[in-house]
Amino acid sequence: MVKTTVYLDEETVAALKGISKRSAKPRAQLIRDALRAFTRTGNPLPAGMGMFDSGHNDTAARKKELLRAGAAKRWRS
Predict the structure, then answer these.
(1) CA gap 30, 36 in Å, rounded
(2) Among residues 4, 29, 5, which one has the least CA distance to residue 16?
(3) In terms of C-beta density within 10 A (0-12 exposed, 13-18 middle, 19 or more buried), how is residue 48 classed?
(4) Is there a contact between 26 and 20 (Cβ–Cβ < 8 Å)?
(5) What is the architecture, at CATH level 2, of domain 1-43?
(6) What is the pLDDT of residues 33-49, one digit of tens each?
(7) Which site among 8, 49, 68, 72 is 20 to 30 Å from 32 CA-CA?
C-alpha cells in the first residue's frame, strides 16, 4: 500500500468517526473501501446528465456565446 494524506472538513471527520465506531472498522479502512467503490464505478455522471439532446454538437465550443445570450434574455425579462 501507498500512504497518502487527505484533508477533510470537520463534518466529514465526525461522520467518519461515527461510522467507524458503529461498524468497528478503522477509519482508514472505511476510506479505502469508499475510494475503491468510487473508482470501480467509472466515476458516473451526476443524475440527469446526458438525459437531453440539444440537437447541437458544438454547445461546449459555444458556451460563452450561449451564456451571454441567456443572460441577456433574462435581464430583458
Answers:
(1) 10
(2) 29
(3) exposed
(4) yes
(5) Orthogonal Bundle (1.10)
(6) 999 988 887 767 777 77
(7) 49
